[in-house]
Write a structure and sequence with these properties.
With about 180 residues, this protein is α+β, with helices and mostly antiparallel strands. It contains four helices and seven strands. Strands 1-2-3-4-5-7-6 form a seven-stranded mixed beta sheet, with helices on both faces. The structure holds coenzyme A.
């Protein structure tokens, strides 16, 4: 279906991790959306998932009626130091065959709601400067460019520029710490 509404968005379960991994690894091998060179293993991705569950950080999937995962999104800790506890970094990945149908937007929206509910102050998106789809997607959700790093990435024999976008959220009344 062209509008992407053939898919439901729901929190990911452990059983979704192989599909999340496959979508990510395709991007590793074929795009500069991620600067990983080597596909991740299922063991690594399961550990990533368990860490998110333990820390109460959201992972969402887009699934069709047959339960096939077409995309995923997540919030991760931006930095381990406690002073960064109210900041998260987001990820959104849609399987190649399903891009451009609005799924990226439907996967990003609940991340922002989850961040707000959790009392976070900021979400950071780290995006390759050539990734037009991701830049437009994030701009639509109020992410603003706060940094531009020239040539800090290298993949497929090319130097790559990286854009940092930030989405501020309503501050919680009195954050602990
Ligand atoms: C980036 C990505 C998540 C966007 O998801 P999507 O489902 O294709 O995006 P949507 O259909 O919701 O469209 C989002 C915006 O991107 C635009 N867009 C989509 N595909 C595009 C393309 N190939 N080139 C330029 N813009 C594009 C849409 O027009 C839309 O812009 P608008 O809001 O101004 O109308 C998806 O392309 C993807 O998974 N890419 C590979 C992984 C990746 O780059 N992840 C992000 C890492 S920072």
């Amino acid at each position: 279906m062209p509008d992407g509404h053939a898919h439901a968005i729901r929190p990911a379960t452990r059983d979704d991790v192989p599909a999340i991994l496959a979508i990510y690894n395709h991007a590793v091998l074929h795009t500069t959306a991620t600067y990983d060179y080597e596909p991740r293993t299922l063991e690594q991705r399961l550990a990533w998932y368990e860490e998110h569950v333990r820390d109460g950080l959201p992972v969402f999937v887009a699934v069709d009626a047959a339960g096939i995962v077409a995309g995923w999104s997540s919030l991760s800790r931006y930095h381990a130091k406690p002073g960064y506890q109210f900041t998260a970094e987001n990820s959104v990945y849609v399987a190649e065959a399903h891009r451009g149908q609005g799924l990226g937007a439907r996967l990003l929206a609940p991340l922002i709601e989850a961040a707000q509910r959790r009392g976070l102050r900021a979400i950071i998106a780290v995006i390759d400067s050539g990734n037009e789809a991701s830049l437009r997607l994030h701009a639509r959700f109020g992410f603003e460019q706060v940094g531009y790093f020239r040539q800090i990435g290298y993949k497929f024999g090319r130097w790559l520029d990286v854009v940092y976008l930030e989405r501020l959220l309503e501050p919680s009344a009195s954050p602990a710490g």
